[in-house]
Amino acid sequence: MKLTLESLSEMGAFTGAPVERDITWKQGDVDLTATVYVRRLSYRSVRSDIDASNSKADVLAARIAASICDETGEPVFTTEDITGDAEPDRGPLDGNLTVALLNVIGEVNGMGKTES
């Protein structure tokens, strides 16, 4: 097989549209559910991870910001929204929500799956 844009497309090597998923997390005593869109890991997310690492920024926050988007693929968060630096009075993203977002990112990207 030759490596071409056509052969890569046939193999599914491009990430395509965001994937819709529902997440649930606990906020105090309340269970909350939301629909999120997750961008599959791609060149953009790898670049975001590298940029965050090189600038000593928060790599997990960068991963969430690069992966969670709206249905058209536009980011929902900035890294600073997640860390709380965008609006200090609002503070950082809730820990349970953070874990739910990281879990759905892993789920969409097949992380943690083992081959039988």
Would you mind describing this structure in some detail?
- The chain has helices at 5-11, 43-54, 59-67, 79-83, 95-108; strands at 19-27, 30-38, 68-69.
- By secondary structure, the chain is of the alpha+beta class.
- It has one domain: rbstp2171, CATH 3.30.2220.
- The radius of gyration is 16 Å and the shape is globular.
- The two termini are 26 Å apart.
* Share of residues in helices: 40-55%
* Number of helices in the DSSP assignment: 5
Report the β-strand fraction as a percent range: 15-25%
Shape: globular
**Biggest β-sheet strands, sense, barrel:** 3 strands, antiparallel
Sum this structure up briefly:
41% of the residues lie in helices and 17% in strands. It is an alpha+beta fold and 116 residues long. 18% of the residues are buried.
List the main descriptive attributes of the protein structure presented here:
5 helices; rbstp2171; 41% helix; 3-stranded antiparallel beta sheet; alpha+beta; 116 residues
Topology:
Layout: H1 5-11, E1 19-27, E2 30-38, H2 43-54, H3 59-67, E3 68-69, H4 79-83, H5 95-108
Antiparallel strand pairs: 1-2, 2-3
